[in-house]
């Protein structure tokens, strides 16, 4: 026969596991349904991203383009990268000299696309 202590511990563990499963299921359904209302900026960003996934990139591999530096980002490797756009299409530029600043116009060569072809990586060639 089961001892009372073992029975209490078993019931407690069962309740903890069950509550954890319920929280996971509820959390998953909330994240899918979007439990909060998006801001106008978030909605516009989401729509631009969705539209970008459905169109062909306005650049091709090997293209040399002039772009304005809109901002700088840090790659996961820690490398500083310039961000510019061609017809709204994002291009991340590597090997940018430290003296290049936001609003500078630079010449770049497109090297690759991300998996969904919604952005590209390019290398810095020179100031335009």
Automatic annotation (TrEMBL):
PROSITE patterns: TRAM
Record Gene3D superfamilies: Nucleic acid-binding proteins (2.40.50.140)
Cleaved signal peptide residues: none
Annotated TM spans: 6-26
Domain TRAM: 58-124
UniProt keyword terms in alphabetical order: Membrane, Transmembrane, Transmembrane helix
InterPro entries: NA-bd_OB-fold, TRAM_dom
Organism domain of life: Archaea
Residue numbers spanned by region Disordered: 28-61
Biased composition annotated in UniProt, kind: Basic and acidic residues: 34-61
Protein name per the record: RNA-binding protein
């Amino acid at each position: 026969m089961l001892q009372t202590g073992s029975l209490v511990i078993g019931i407690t563990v069962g309740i903890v596991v069950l509550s954890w499963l319920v929280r996971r299921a509820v959390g998953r359904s909330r994240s899918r349904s979007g439990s909060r209302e998006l801001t106008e900026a978030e909605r516009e960003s989401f729509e631009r991203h969705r539209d970008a996934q459905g169109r062909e990139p306005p650049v091709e591999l090997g293209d040399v383009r002039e772009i304005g530096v809109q901002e700088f980002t840090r790659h996961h490797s820690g490398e500083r990268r310039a961000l510019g756009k061609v017809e709204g299409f994002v291009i991340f530029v590597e090997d940018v000299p430290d003296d290049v600043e936001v609003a500078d116009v630079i010449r770049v060569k497109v090297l690759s696309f991300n998996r969904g072809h919604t952005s590209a990586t390019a290398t810095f060639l020179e100031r335009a």
